[in-house]
Design goal:
The complex is a heterodimer of chains A (204) and B (551). In chain A, 42% of the residues lie in helices and 17% in strands. With 204 residues, chain A is of the alpha+beta class. The model of chain A has no long low-confidence stretch (mean pLDDT 91). Chain B is an alpha+beta fold. Classes of the chains: A alpha+beta (204), B alpha+beta (551).
Chain lengths: 204, 551
């Protein structure tokens, strides 16, 4: 088994070898080792993608907009991902974004996961008909099949920033709270006098 | 009244000419390893060597919760095949630290892989990998002597200092070894290179057990064991090439922690108002004892001999003009002494005295040692919402000398760092005489910082995200600028590709933090050192009082 450190180093060097700058290659190394930790085929997807772009100049969107596409070619997942994390404040304002014609879209996933961490909110991502959710760079929830997939191109990738909201109703919360109060001790007159430690009057 | 001592200026301390004068100290990893593990149980578990000393051995280190094991494989090696170069493919012995006690299956698996080193594979159950070669000069002499019932020649042993020297010690995810994140939360590992230090310490014990075994098999009736006092004075040699140099550039956060902790120790010591006589006496005792290590420091390197002589002169000057004229009655004694040292001695002498000043202060050092690890990932993200003006100002503050360097001249660009294809190891070459500079590694930090600073002048008050779109080739140094802003000792404030570069300064910096002594440069690109010379032996480690380095 390759260690995470080996995956990082080899991915970085391979990205540099096909023409990405060292600084970008460093990001690639980190990203690939991170999604491999989640069991997603980062190395397979990267290997395939890097082979397809030898000799051509990959590009990301010129600037981040609601709908992002290039007229004459498909989007590079690495430059698109970097655009997202480098412009995370604009992305947060736009909230829902669409990317048309994106190569090897699973390679975008670790960048979206990092984006989720930078913004501090969970992010839904759909790659055509596959759905995943990135949670503050600490986990990726996805359809089980995503683990072994190599996806050459997505027609549409949508990302949607989720607001920080409870996943439960206030009724459920109140019920749980009531249960938790059963660990408390009922107050008595004496405990009111002596239990808290502070004075009874604060205006002395 | 108290005084407020500032940390020393990174722009002075982080020059290679200064870093290349660092010495071992109480912060060094060899010493902190022994302090951390002295109460663990060290045992020989398996010792299955044939009469010539070839075979398998296992040593364990345990406490109630955990066990680590060194698995050793000693193999026959013709003299013609022995090489310290990293390009070697065979060694006298190969070693691995296994997490736990290895099963028979583990040992069989490791036997197939560990002797192959870089072309074998380890698993997440292994934590460090190494190999070592015998010192031909010493090893056979020791066997011959012991088998004839006499102890070996102490003078020869003292000149060499070890029976074996390692030629690489790998850890943290290399060749399938466990990544650091798997073990970093273990309290005993809370310090850099702990596992590597453990490996070297246990290998040292193996070398003694092996010579005793071979001598006994050679002449069972007459042989004697290597004298314990002689054993204590033997360490493990290490041949270190350029592989270590890029490490300190590629781990800026870790480099900062090492230097910062050293500077913080010095700052706290200089702020002590009333220095006790006992502490001063301890300092003087270790200064006296340490002179033996300097007088036994043998090297053919002219470069190193100049430095050793500088050090000897500095110590003489210090003793005559400072030490003999001061008393601890004076408040902030250490601070006064340090100021004299900084003003009157060379870098060799200053850094030597700084190391010695730490000796009396367990209370300061023991709190600082756990801070000598770092998580590079924590500083990886670039704050792209900042402006180019902010970045430019930050560069001017963090890299004042670097932005004044002139990279339009050839001698500033003389060298380039690359990774060799056949061994995947870092190398240094002349940009103008050798091929491959188009595949240069991103280690020319000063040149790229200078370029970044120049380009920022034509991108006034832009968001960094916009600047990075057009200047992707400088992304790696934009990241570093933000690291060094938070961690001021993260960067070497020198040109790592200039014609005057001495790569061994980078090696010595790292090796001094390991706790190595007797740096012996064999060229400007590699050197030999000795580790654990004077250290307690495995059976007596629990009695160690941390002063063994001066034994």
């Amino acid at each position: 088994m390759q260690s995470s450190s080996e995956i990082n180093t080899i991915s970085k060097r391979a990205a540099r070898a096909v023409g990405y700058s060292w600084g970008v290659a460093e990001e690639v190394g980190k990203c690939i080792s991170s999604i491999e930790m989640f069991g997603i085929s980062g190395v397979e997807n990267l290997n395939n993608y890097l082979k397809t772009i030898k000799g051509i100049e990959p590009e990301g969107p010129k600037q981040i907009e609601k709908t992002n596409k290039l007229n004459d070619k498909s989007l590079c997942p690495i430059y698109t991902g970097l655009k997202l994390i480098d412009n995370y404040k604009s992305v947060e304002e736009i909230k829902a974004l669409k990317f048309i014609n994106l190569d090897y879209p699973l390679l975008l996933l670790p960048f979206v996961n990092k984006l989720s961490y930078l913004i501090g909110k969970r992010i839904e991502i759909s790659i055509d008909d596959i759905n995943a959710e990135c949670n503050l760079n600490s986990c990726v929830l996805a359809d089980h099949q995503i683990k072994s997939l190599i996806i050459k191109k997505a027609n549409t990738v949508k990302i949607n920033i989720l607001e920080n909201e409870d996943s439960f109703s206030s009724k459920t919360w109140n019920e749980l709270y009531e249960m938790s109060t059963e660990t408390f001790v009922e107050e008595t007159e004496q405990s009111k006098q002596t239990g808290a430690g502070a004075g009874l009057r604060d205006n002395d | 009244m108290l005084i407020k001592v500032q940390h020393r200026d990174p722009n002075q301390i982080m020059k290679l000419s200064r870093l290349g004068c660092f010495h071992q100290s109480k912060l060094s990893f060899l010493r902190s390893f022994i302090r951390e593990f002295k109460d663990w149980e060290f045992k020989s578990e398996i010792f299955e060597l044939d009469k010539e000393g070839y075979g398998t051995a296992v040593y364990s280190v345990s406490n109630k919760e955990r066990t680590y094991s060194l698995v050793c494989f000693a193999n026959k090696l013709d003299d013609t095949e022995r090489s310290d170069r990293v390009i070697a493919t065979k060694w006298d012995a190969a070693f691995v630290i296994h997490d736990g006690l290895p099963s028979k299956d583990d040992i069989d698996r490791l036997r197939e892989n560990v002797p192959k080193q870089e072309v074998g594979r380890c698993s997440f159950k292994e934590l460090a990998l190494s190999r070592a070669n015998r010192s031909v000069r010493v090893f056979n002499h020791v066997i011959d002597s012991l088998s004839n019932g006499i102890q070996p020649n102490k003078k020869l042993l003292s000149e060499v200092g070890y029976l074996y020297r390692t030629t690489a010690v790998y850890g943290s995810g290399k060749f399938g070894l466990a990544d650091r994140y798997r073990i970093k939360d273990r309290p005993e590992i809370n310090g850099p290179f702990r596992i590597e230090m453990m490996l070297v310490y246990l290998v040292r014990q193996f070398t003694f057990d092996q010579v005793n075994h071979i001598a006994h098999k050679k002449n069972p009736n007459q042989s004697v064991k290597l004298d314990l006092e002689i054993s204590r004075q033997l360490g493990i040699g290490n041949s270190t090439g350029l592989g270590m140099a890029p490490f300190i550039i590629n781990h800026p956060a870790l480099l900062h922690q090492w230097i910062y902790v050293r500077e913080e120790a010095l700052r706290q010591i200089r702020e002590i108002k009333k220095v006790s006589n006992d502490d001063f006496e301890m300092f003087k005792t270790f200064l006296e004892l340490s002179k033996k290590n300097i007088s036994n420091w043998n090297t053919d390197s002219e470069f190193q001999n100049v430095k050793i002589n500088q050090l000897k002169e500095d110590i003489q000057k210090f003793e005559n003009n400072c030490l003999n004229n001061i008393t601890v009655e004076k408040e902030f004694f250490w601070n006064e002494m340090y100021k004299w040292v900084e003003k009157n001695l060379t870098h060799e002498g200053v850094e030597y005295i700084v190391s010695l000043m730490m000796e009396p202060y367990d209370n300061i050092i023991n709190l600082l040692v756990p801070q000598m690890s770092s998580d590079e990932d924590h500083y990886f993200d670039i704050p792209t919402n900042r402006s180019t003006d902010q970045l430019k100002t930050s560069i001017e503050k963090s890299y004042p000398d670097i932005i004044r360097m002139d990279f339009s001249i050839d001698k500033s660009n003389e060298n380039f760092w690359y990774i060799s294809k056949n061994k995947e190891e870092p190398r240094l070459a002349s940009r103008f005489d050798e091929p491959g500079s188009e595949l240069e590694q991103p280690l020319a930090i000063a040149r790229d910082i200078k370029e970044l600073h120049a380009r920022l002048s034509s991108h006034k008050n832009e968001e960094l995200s916009k600047f990075l779109e057009e200047n992707s080739d400088l992304r790696h140094v934009v990241r570093r600028c933000h690291i060094v802003e938070k961690l001021p000792y993260a960067e070497i404030q020198d040109n790592s590709i200039g014609s005057e570069l001495m790569p061994i300064d980078m090696l010595r910096l790292k090796l001094s933090f390991f706790g190595a002594q007797k740096f012996d440069p064999r060229s400007d690109k590699w050197l030999r050192i000795c580790m654990y010379q004077g250290a307690p032996l495995m059976h007596e480690i629990n009695k160690s009082n941390d002063t063994w380095i001066y034994n």
